[in-house]
């Protein structure tokens, strides 16, 4: 049946509901793990694996819709607007954590020893791994852009090369952040400094991993993409740029500005 409109009426899908259950299970597993409940890691692992599975089947269905020519120009515009609104909501998420960090750093209370960083806290040296990670994300910004523009002019080999480079840079970032956390002189429970530091940078690290997965899916499905039907790649690169921009603020506020002493 030929449609007389450019929109795609999406079929009923169980994946939004099941994905939310998986995220909730992962969050509960993480909370129980932090509180040292017995076998909490099983719930955490099950939730995380469920998220990966539902991401896979959801992406699979979207790819099938694209291959079925349901992604008209109007639909692609809607998908892009949806991603932009999602990124705005995620930006507000990070604004909250950064605002909390700035609030406590600017006016350290007596509970923090009237000092910032709080008494006994040795901040992460921003000139070492954080600076290296900044260089990695800066390089990935350009390689992601090259991949996007290569696809738009139908140079798939160049696109593949730069997608692989971007994914490897993202994995290196995650690895060095893991080393940074392992060598940190403070923990999540060490005052408001530790909690805001690890939550803000940890959630950013999670977004990097999601971005890597997004780019990996684009790489694996690139043979089916065309310059006019590569909305997934465009959105993945847009999301990756958001990750880059958030890191600039984390680097400037938490690692650099937040590491210098000030008194209340």
Describe this structure in words.
- This protein has 7 helices and 2 strands; from the N terminus they run αααβααααβ.
- The termini are far apart.
- The chain has a two-stranded antiparallel ribbon with strand order 1-2.
- The chain has 2 domains: 1-70, Orthogonal Bundle (Helix Hairpins); 72-263, Four Helix Bundle (Hemerythrin (Met), subunit A) (Up-down Bundle), CATH 1.20.120.
- α4 packs antiparallel against α5 (156-183).
- The chain has 264 residues and is mainly α.
- Helices cover 72% and strands 2% of the residues.
- This is Cytochrome c oxidase subunit 3.
- Keywords: Membrane, Mitochondrion, Translocase, Transmembrane, Transmembrane helix.
- Average pLDDT reading: 89
**Sheet having the most strands:** 2 strands, antiparallel
CATH third-tier fold name of the largest domain? Four Helix Bundle (Hemerythrin (Met), subunit A)
Structural class: mainly alpha
Note the overall shape.
Answer: globular
> Uncertain spans, ≥5 residues at pLDDT below 50?
none
The number of helical segments is 7
Rounded to an integer in angstroms, the radius of gyration calculated over CA atoms is 21 Å
Series of H and E elements: HHHEHHHHE
By CATH reckoning, the class of the largest domain would read Mainly Alpha
What portion of residues is helical?
Answer: over 70%
Q: Spatial order of the strands in the main sheet?
A: 1-2
Count of DSSP strands: 2
CATH architecture of the largest domain: Up-down Bundle
Provide the CATH superfamily of the largest domain.
Cytochrome c oxidase, subunit III, four-helix bundle
Strand fraction equals: under 5%
Number of domains: 2
Ends apart, CA distance between termini: 70 Å
């Amino acid at each position: 049946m030929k449609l007389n409109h450019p929109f795609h009426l999406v079929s009923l899908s169980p994946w939004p509901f099941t994905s939310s259950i998986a995220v909730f299970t992962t969050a509960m597993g993480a909370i129980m793990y932090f509180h040292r409940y017995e076998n909490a890691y099983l719930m955490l692992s099950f939730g995380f694996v469920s998220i990966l599975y539902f991401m896979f089947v959801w992406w699979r269905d979207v790819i099938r819709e694209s291959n079925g020519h349901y992604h008209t120009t109007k639909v692609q515009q809607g998908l892009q607007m949806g991603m932009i609104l999602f990124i705005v909501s995620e930006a507000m998420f990070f604004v909250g954590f950064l605002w909390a960090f700035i609030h406590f750093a600017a006016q350290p209370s007596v509970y923090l020893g009237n000092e910032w960083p709080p008494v006994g806290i040795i901040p992460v040296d921003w000139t070492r791994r954080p600076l290296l990670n900044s260089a990695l994300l800066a390089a990935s910004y350009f390689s992601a852009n090259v991949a996007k523009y290569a696809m738009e002019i139908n140079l798939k080999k160049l696109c593949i090369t730069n997608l692989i480079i971007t994914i490897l840079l993202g994995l290196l970032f995650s690895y060095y952040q893991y080393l940074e956390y392992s060598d940190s002189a403070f923990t999540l429970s060490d005052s408001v400094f530790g909690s805001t530091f690890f939550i803000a940078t940890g959630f950013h690290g999670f977004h990097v991993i999601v971005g890597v997965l997004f780019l990996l899916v684009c790489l694996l499905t690139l043979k089916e993409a065309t310059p006019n039907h590569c909305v997934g790649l465009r959105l993945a690169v847009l999301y990756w740029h958001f990750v880059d921009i958030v890191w600039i603020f984390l680097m400037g506020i938490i690692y650099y500005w937040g590491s210098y002493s000030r008194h209340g």
